[in-house]
Amino acid sequence: QVQLVESGGGLVQPGGSLTVSCAASGSRARINYMNWYRQAPGKEREWVATITYGAGITYGVNTNYANSVKGRFTLSRDNVKNTVYLQMNSLKPEDTAIYYCNTGGVWGQGTQVTVSA
């Protein structure tokens, strides 16, 4: 079974940037997609973005973003390191949340992102 470990969270000022990572390990099964979700205090977990690659997408990578982060967040992956990155620019206080990665029903432990002056 795959294990997911997020890292890279922290405190950043409004308008700043931060990159969080999701490293996958523990499974030989090919991972074809990775979701990012976030959960703010007192709110439900919400979908942020998805990167899709591998089987069925020859030499291609597809990304999709929630409207609230479109144009500010960018997904990428390092196939050698089996890691997906979520680069977050122009951060706003409302981006404050625990960020989780998810694939195949497996969740990471989350990483806290706080946007505050």
Task: Please give a handful of descriptors for the protein shown.
117 residues; mainly beta; seven-stranded mixed sheet; four-stranded antiparallel sheet
- Protein structure class: mainly beta
Number of helices: 0
Radius of gyration (CA) equals 14 Å
Oligomer: single chain
Kindly report how far apart the N and C termini lie.
40 Å
Number of strands: 11
Query: Whole-number average pLDDT?
Result: 91
Strand content: over 45%
What profile does the largest beta sheet have?
7 strands, mixed
> Any idea what the shape is?
globular
Order of helices and strands: EEEEEEEEEEE
Helix content: under 10%
Low-confidence stretches: none
Fold and architecture overview:
This protein has 117 residues and is mainly β. It is built from no helices and 11 strands. The chain has strands at residues 3-7, 10-12, 18-25, 33-39, 46-54, 57-65, 73-78, 83-88, 97-103, 106-107, 111-115. The strands form 2 sheets. Strands 2, 4, 5, 6, 9, 10 and 11 form a 7-stranded mixed β-sheet that branches. The chain has a 4-stranded antiparallel β-sheet with strand order 1-3-8-7, with no helix packed on it. Strand 7 (73-78) and strand 8 form a beta hairpin. It starts with a strand and ends with a strand. The mean pLDDT is 91.
